[in-house]
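Structure request: Metallophosphoesterase 1, Macaca nemestrina.
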Amino acid sequence: MAMIEVGFERQNFYPLKRKSALLLKLIAVVFAVLLFCEFLIYYLAIFQCNWPEVKTTAYDGEQASHEPVLKAMFLADTHLLGEFLGHWLDKLRREWQMERAFQTALWLLQPEVVFILGDVFDEGKWSTPEAWADDVERFQKMFRHPSHVQLKVVAGNHDIGFHYEMNTYKVERFEKVFSSERLFSWKGINFVMVNSVALNGDAEAELIEVSHRLNCSREGRRASQCHSRLSGPCLSAFVTQPPALLAFDEGQVSDANCSGDDASQKVCQGLLWWLQPRLVLSGHTHSACEVHHGGRVPEFSVPSFSWRNRNNPSFIMGSITPTDYALSKCYLPREDVVLVIYCGAVGFLVVLTLSHLGLLASPFLSGLNLLRKRKTR
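Returned structure:
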């Protein structure tokens, strides 16, 4: 009787052991794929990015001096979803992707300053106070940064609305969180941050005042930022004295004229005249493109940082000195590559499960059996 019970227990033990082995393999594969696609892939992509080389020696007559280099990251159009648009899963997924990409870039690249060129939120132009507070809290969690890293944010049309839907409350609400400063200086470089969606009314007087402050500065090096290109609503980043021009490989802006009412056109055209930039960086288009103003001042549009807007988001890395600059683009993981990896993993898990259940012959076992048959002949 005891022998029968032992035999029965062994019969039950082997199927249970096989099921446990299968479960462990499935868990191991799922964990490995999730670890790679949700963490390691960001390190793999951003590790390939390097700060561009820039000339650091300046000559004043016969005297040479070593100029400090400012490492700046430029992002645009994060479009954090609010309470109305988009599915909750879409919101969760996109914000996780941007958080991992940003935190990985901070750790690997060690920038000194990060600029976000507008449209931080997708629904800021109509969000309620409660929804706004929730959006801001999520933004601060995603884009948290060490105290030694400066984070500068410019308003976009999705943050406060275009001029016809913008009001004092929306502007003040935005500036309360992200500051109202228009001029930011570091390492002898001046950045002018322009809220281009407000380029009407008394905006001209404000720009003249900023220009006056720049002209009174002995350094005389300028830089500025906007959300949209100068041929539309703009939030751009400027730097002075035109160096070599850089071009990106996606699209081309053909219209370099300002659009909108007369006041907006006047201020847009006056930006280049008053501020005399040598570089303009802007957002709004979600794609990288280049246009030259007056045949000499280059403007580069920064692609969207969100996978909701692009299959291949990216950001701009800038090495900037008071007299020169160099830019390069850093690509983030492609959405379609991640989907292919997940689909391949699902297929592998199905094959593995069927093999363990005996419903599908394992290719490895089939090959091993074939080798054994050949050896016995």
